[in-house]
C-alpha cells in the first residue's frame, strides 16, 4: 500500500518545536506534520516533571549566557521571538501562566497536557494534519520539490507513504529519551544530504563520581551550592597541584542513590568528562581557610555536640542552608569525628577536614548519564549549515531546521523550550 501526498509544508517531528511551528504559523496552509510514533509531544509531557516549564522570566538578554558558548549566535532568533512572546502566545490561546520565585514560567494548571492540547488545536486551525507512524527514511530534492520517503513505524508494516513539498521543516529533536521517538536517526538521513552533523552527546545529565558517599541520602537537596569542574584530579597532575578550572556554576544540588544531580550538576554536565575533578561547596559564601578560622573561634568553650554545633553554625551563616541531620552525621563520619562529641574537643585537623568537606568536597568524575536520562542533546546539525536569522538551510532552499535538531543545548529552567519556540517561529516567518 503506497500513498503520495502533495502539500504546502511538511513538518518532520511532533515535539515542541514542530508542534509550535504549526501552531504559531499565523496563516492557513495545506500542511502535514509527520510523527514516527503513535502520539505527539511525549517529551513535552515530561518537561518540568509533567508541569511543563515553558520558558524563563526576566530579560531575554539574560538568556544568552544559558546556551554554553553559542548564546551570541542565537541572539537574533531569541530576540525576534522572546520569552514574553511565548507567554503572550499561550495566554492568548487560553493557557494562563505564572512565574515561580525562581523565574520559571509554568501553566497555571501545572499540567503539560494543557500545553500540548493547545499546540495541537492551534496547528489544526492553521491547516496541519498529523500523520502518525511515519518514519522518514530518505529525502530527495530535485532542485524544486522535496520528496520524503516514509516507512511505517507502527503496526501497519505494509504502509509506505511518499510526501512532496517545496517546504520542509526538520524538527526531529536529538537523541535524548530515545523511547519517545527522539532517537537521532534523522541525523543519518541528513548526513546523506551532505549536512555537517556535530556528534551528539547527552546533555543535562547526572554526574557519577568515584567513591560516591551519599547513597543513603537520596532525595536530599541543597539550595544554591557552588559546583566547580577542574580538568583533572590533583593526583593526575604530576608535580602541579593546581588543576585548570573548566567551569563553575551556582544552583541547587540533589543527591540521588547513585550520583549527583539537580540544576547545579545538570547545567555543567556538558563540560564534564570522565577523569575531571568535581568540587562541591555547600557554603559558597565561604572559602575553606575562612571557614576554618571562624570554626576555631566558635568551638572554643562550646559544650554542644559537634552535630548540633555544625547545624546551628551553618544556619547562622544563611538560614536557608539548614543542613539535614543525616548529612551532618555522614560528614562527621567522613572526617573521622563522632557527631556526639563536644565541639570544644575538635582538633585542628578535624576542623580542617570539616571545613574542607563543606567548602571543597572533591571527587573524581567516573562518568555521566546516557541518552536514556538526558534532558536534551548536545550536538546535532552544525549551526554553520543554517542561516540563524531564518533557520533556513544554506545548501537547500526551502529546507528549515529548528529546535533540538540543531547543535544547541540550553540550561534547565525553560531555556531549551524557549529555543524550540523561537527557532520554530522564526522559521515560519520565511514560509509563504
Q: Could you explain how this protein is built, in words?
A:
It comes from Clostridium aminobutyricum. Keywords: FAD, Flavoprotein. This is NAD(P)/FAD-dependent oxidoreductase. Residues 201-374 form the RsdA/BaiN/AoA(So)-like insert domain. Its cofactor is FAD. The protein is of the alpha+beta class and 432 residues long. It folds into two domains: 2-203 and 372-429, FAD/NAD(P)-binding domain; 207-368, Helicase, Ruva Protein, domain 3 (Orthogonal Bundle). The chain has twelve helices and 22 strands. The chain has a six-stranded antiparallel sheet with strand order 13-18-17-14-15-16. Strands 7-3-2-11-22 form a five-stranded parallel sheet. β15 and β16 (260-261) form a beta hairpin. The protein is elongated.
Strand order of the largest sheet: 13-18-17-14-15-16
- Portion of residues in beta strands equals 25-35%
Q: Looking at CATH, which topology of the largest domain would you report? A: FAD/NAD(P)-binding domain
Main structural class: alpha+beta
User: Given this structure, which CATH class of the largest domain is correct?
Assistant: Alpha Beta
End-to-end span in angstroms?
A: 32 Å
What is the count of distinct domains?
2
Task: Kindly provide the radius of gyration, computed on alpha-carbon positions and rounded to a whole number of angstroms.
Answer: 25 Å
- Ranges with pLDDT <50 over ≥5 residues? 235-240
Q: How much helix, percentage-wise, in residues?
A: 25-40%
Overall pLDDT confidence: 91
Largest sheet, strands/sense/barrel: 6 strands, antiparallel
What's the architecture of the largest domain, going by CATH? 3-Layer(bba) Sandwich
Number of helices: 12
Domain RsdA/BaiN/AoA(So)-like Rossmann fold-like: 8-429
Protein name: NAD(P)/FAD-dependent oxidoreductase
Domain RsdA/BaiN/AoA(So)-like insert: 201-374
Keywords: FAD, Flavoprotein
